Amino acid sequence: MEIAVVDYKGGNVQSVLFALERLGVQATLTADHDVLRRADKVLFPGEGEAASAMRELRAQGLHELLPTLTQPFLGICLGMQLLGRHTEEGGGTDMLGILPFDVVRFTAAGPEHKIPHMGWNNLQQLRSPLFEGLQAADFVYFVHSYYAPVGDYTIAEAEYPAPFSAAVQHENFYAVQFHTEKSGPVGTRILENFLKL
Amino acid sequence: MLTKRIIPCLDIKDGRTVKGVQFEGLRDAGDPVALAARYAREGADELVFLDITATNQKRATLIALVRDVARELDIPFTVGGGIGSIADVEALLMNGADKVSINSAGLARPELINELAARFGSQCIVVAADARYNAADGWQVYTRAGTNNTGRNAVDWCREAADRGAGEILLTSMSNDGTKDGFALDITGAVSRAVTIPVIASGGAGSKQDFTNVFQQAQADAGLAASIFHFGEIGIRELKEHLRQDGIPMRL
């Protein structure tokens, strides 16, 4: 199985590569359009700031390639947000538009709801083969200040304090807001489930 | 519901854990990778590695260690100790660290925090503040492993760090560190109320009740400790079960 991880200088890809390695999978970190098109699975991790990520994607023509991919695709963290239409981050940034959501910033709701939303939160309303074998109370690790609201595309929710999209899907495009590569055995199971799609 | 976090801290010198670790079942108690894996299995929510090496070999050894830890560990970890430049941070993140903690360099040149946040994102920039209390000046921030009083008020500095783009504050009370008399609730609470980013409380943990207090009375988002975990005085699972019984959200 050929696994490609999209290389667009989007933060900590090493953790994702190591997580795949622990599952016995050797992945290729690449921005090469042919390699990405050919791969059996594509992972799209990301951290940092949306506007600079979009600049880098455009510079490499990935903003045109990624929406055309047809194999199972997994966005992680910023890699999920970038699949949306637009984000408030960076004074407003247009994104890939693969999924019909607009990303907004959390509003501070007192000392119990700091920003970023950082730490372990439980998943709810699981509705995807991605979460096979998980329970609704299972915890995963989040670090983010912006979020995608709940919509028809939502396949898992979390609350902070209101519900938001912890995971989304449209056709072959799956994405998780949390760091599945850093979410202990629960995160490992989600990665395994993705590799089986 | 977002849980409070329990974070063991490992002091690293020349690639080995120091400060003494007494664990049964670890063939080599000084091996940070084995210790990290053990803490992760027992339910630690994150780990912090604090490098206290003072030699020229420092970076290479630390980076090799970070890579070894990242390869094994499926929970987030932060690396701190002598980080002073964008290049330092880049090397650590490229090798699998999830966050870096900035201390003296941030106080020496606060713009570094802005630069790091802009380059790597706030989510991976932890600002560590070592604070000590004296009756005349209140809580002041110290640098260079606690030897240099900056004269900065701890709450003011933490607020500035947050404004400059820090994603999290690691607040250590030097006045409480090593006492096992509990966390410094007053300064932890004051910082937690002054900033809208998460605050990790550190220094003084001696009992399970100390953690309950820092979460309930000082609104800390995470509690960090070293020796009570290393010496097996309090097991992580046992601590988290106790906290959950006290009504504190915990991942178990």
UniProtKB/TrEMBL annotation, chain A:
The active site is at residues 77, 179, 181. InterPro entries: Class_I_gatase-like (IPR029062), GATASE (IPR017926), Imidazole-glycPsynth_HisH (IPR010139). Gene3D superfamilies: 3.40.50.880. Residues 5-195 form the Glutamine amidotransferase domain. Pathway: Amino-acid biosynthesis; L-histidine biosynthesis; L-histidine from 5-phospho-alpha-D-ribose 1-diphosphate: step 5/9. It catalyses: 5-[(5-phospho-1-deoxy-D-ribulos-1-ylimino)methylamino]-1-(5-phospho-beta-D-ribosyl)imidazole-4-carboxamide + L-glutamine = D-erythro-1-(imidazol-4-yl)glycerol 3-phosphate + 5-amino-1-(5-phospho-beta-D-ribosyl)imidazole-4-carboxamide + L-glutamate + H(+); L-glutamine + H2O = L-glutamate + NH4(+). Its EC number is 4.3.2.10, 3.5.1.2. Keywords: Amino-acid biosynthesis, Cytoplasm, Glutamine amidotransferase, Histidine biosynthesis, Hydrolase, Lyase. It is found in: Cytoplasm. IGPS catalyzes the conversion of PRFAR and glutamine to IGP, AICAR and glutamate. The HisH subunit catalyzes the hydrolysis of glutamine to glutamate and ammonia as part of the synthesis of IGP and AICAR. The resulting ammonia molecule is channeled to the active site of HisF. NCBIfam families: IMP_synth_hisH. Heterodimer of HisH and HisF. HAMAP family: HisH. This is Imidazole glycerol phosphate synthase subunit HisH.
UniProtKB/TrEMBL annotation, chain B:
It is found in: Cytoplasm. GO terms for molecular function: lyase activity. It catalyses: 5-[(5-phospho-1-deoxy-D-ribulos-1-ylimino)methylamino]-1-(5-phospho-beta-D-ribosyl)imidazole-4-carboxamide + L-glutamine = D-erythro-1-(imidazol-4-yl)glycerol 3-phosphate + 5-amino-1-(5-phospho-beta-D-ribosyl)imidazole-4-carboxamide + L-glutamate + H(+). Its EC number is 4.3.2.10. Pathway: Amino-acid biosynthesis; L-histidine biosynthesis; L-histidine from 5-phospho-alpha-D-ribose 1-diphosphate: step 5/9. It is an enzyme of class 4 (lyase). The active site is at residues 11, 130. Pfam families: His_biosynth (PF00977). Signal peptide: none annotated. Keywords: Amino-acid biosynthesis, Cytoplasm, Histidine biosynthesis, Lyase. It comes from the Bacteria. Heterodimer of HisH and HisF. PANTHER family: IMIDAZOLE GLYCEROL PHOSPHATE SYNTHASE HISHF (PTHR21235:SF2), IMIDAZOLE GLYCEROL PHOSPHATE SYNTHASE SUBUNIT HISF/H IGP SYNTHASE SUBUNIT HISF/H (PTHR21235). IGPS catalyzes the conversion of PRFAR and glutamine to IGP, AICAR and glutamate. The HisF subunit catalyzes the cyclization activity that produces IGP and AICAR from PRFAR using the ammonia provided by the HisH subunit. NCBIfam families: hisF. Belongs to the HisA/HisF family. This is Imidazole glycerol phosphate synthase subunit HisF. It comes from Hymenobacter terrestris. The gene is hisF.
